[in-house]
TrEMBL record:
This is Homoserine dehydrogenase. Pfam families: Homoserine_dh (PF00742), NAD_binding_3 (PF03447). NADPH binds at residue 128. Keywords: Amino-acid biosynthesis, Methionine biosynthesis, NADP, Oxidoreductase, Threonine biosynthesis. It comes from Rhizobium giardinii.
């Protein structure tokens, strides 16, 4: 039986949900996936940090109502956050990075990933910053250190768009994509269509765990811009930076815009897209678009996301599923760990052959 020791960096909605899954499903994973997860360290800006080489009880971590600096009360705990020590020194096989996304330079999460990879630890992350801004360098660092850098949850939470496109559409010749890539803004537009005002709809999205720490990133399109960069670089072989992608969000849409669209049999959606141009260059954009109800993206509601991949050999292939949510995103982390486990198993099989 394989046990992966994991260290959680950030203990907010997503990593708490992963701890919940561990508490509820480790036995099932042992049976069905061939491994179990053991939390050996946690570090959080608000709660402090803790290392326990034998493992922390996931249920205790979730149920304890820790105040600021609360990890200081635990054996091996410290009221201060100490990401660098935790990442470099904890006896972890995998660092689970789920701190705030910084859309400007990806820090400090880029450094968290770098410290982990340099010390021979795998990284799984749902943080869009390091992936959009430094994926190439981090992937190279992972390869140089014989470990993996996995980030399925950075786009469409647990819906497997990155791995699905890479593994099962290889050779289909992707030409571009367009999609609804932000759960919060899609949820907000739907709630406004039902008559709720913008601010209350954003508040609901925050309560449901969909929104970024600063929801401006959701409603101004910055979050979608990062996702367009991630998909374009990963799937279209581009080398885009966030500032290369034109970006407009939904905050300029009024209740009357939304009402008028509905009366005319259409719906506003925030669409992120990218295309390979005839000269081989790849461009990307984020903008609200008024779509007829017969458009495939018009019926995608709530925090659901969808991306339509335009391929040479198959035409459009559309992937749809949850785009945000705590458990949904924690599942993406599990799927990354499954990928690491499978890669390890196939490496062992190759050595034995
Ligand atoms: N919630 C979702 O639906 C979702 C989906 C996909 C991706 N993501 C991404 O996953 C990450 C985590 O999301 P979340 O919903 O858990 O966010 P959250 O705001 O609930 O939690 C983030 C946690 O990280 C901690 N933190 C922030 N900076 C830190 C630092 N420098 N060191 C240590 N801890 C730090 C905060 O104290 C907080 O507890 C974000 O980057 C987000 O963009 C979230
Ligand atoms: N805030 C993001 C989380 C998923 O990346 C959203 O609403 O889509």
């Amino acid at each position: 039986m394989t046990v992966y020791n994991i260290a959680l960096i950030g203990f907010g909605g997503v990593n708490r949900a992963l701890a919940e899954l561990i508490a509820a499903k480790n036995q099932l994973w042992e049976r069905d996936l061939g491994f179990r997860l053991n939390i050996v360290a946690v570090s959080d800006l608000y709660l402090g940090s803790v290392i326990s080489p034998n493992g922390l009880d996931a249920m205790t971590l979730i149920e304890a109502k820790f105040e600021k600096g609360g990890f200081g009360q635990l054996s091996g705990g410290n009221a201060e956050t100490d990401n660098e020590t935790i990442i470099k020194m904890a006896p972890a096989d995998i660092i689970v990075e789920a701190t705030f996304t910084n859309p400007k330079d990806g820090e400090p999460a880029v450094s968290h990933c770098r410290w982990a990879l340099e010390t021979g630890k795998h990284v799984v992350t749902t943080n869009k910053g390091p992936v959009a801004i430094a994926a190439q360098a981090l992937k190279a660092l992972a390869t140089a250190n014989g470990v993996r850098f996995e980030y399925e949850g950075a786009v469409m939470s647990g819906t497997p768009v990155i791995r699905m496109a890479e593994n099962t559409l290889a050779g289909a010749e992707l030409k571009g994509f367009e999609g609804i890539l932000n759960g919060t803004s899609n949820f907000v537009l739907g709630r406004m269509e039902s008559g709720l005002d913008f601010a209350s709809a954003v508040k609901e999205a925050q309560e449901l765990g969909y929104a970024e720490a600063d929801p401006t990133a959701d409603v101004e399109g910055f979050d979608v811009r990062l996702k367009v960069v991630i998909l374009a670089n990963e799937l279209l072989g581009a080398n885009l930076k966030p500032e290369d992608v034109t970006c407009k969000g939904i905050s300029g849409l009024s209740a009357s815009d939304i009402e008028q669209a509905a009366k005319a049999g259409s719906r506003w959606k925030l669409v992120g897209s990218s295309v390979r141009n005839d000269d081989g260059s790849v461009t990307g954009s984020v903008a609200p678009r008024r779509l007829g109800l017969d458009h495939p993206l018009a019926g995608v509601n709530g925090a659901t996301n969808a991306v339509s991949l335009d391929t040479e050999l198959l035409g459009a292939v559309t992937i749809t599923g949850p785009g945000a949510g705590r458990i949904e995103t924690a599942y993406a982390l599990l799927s990354d760990i499954v990928a690491i486990h499978s890669a390890g198993a196939s490496a062992i099989a190759k050595e034995a052959a």
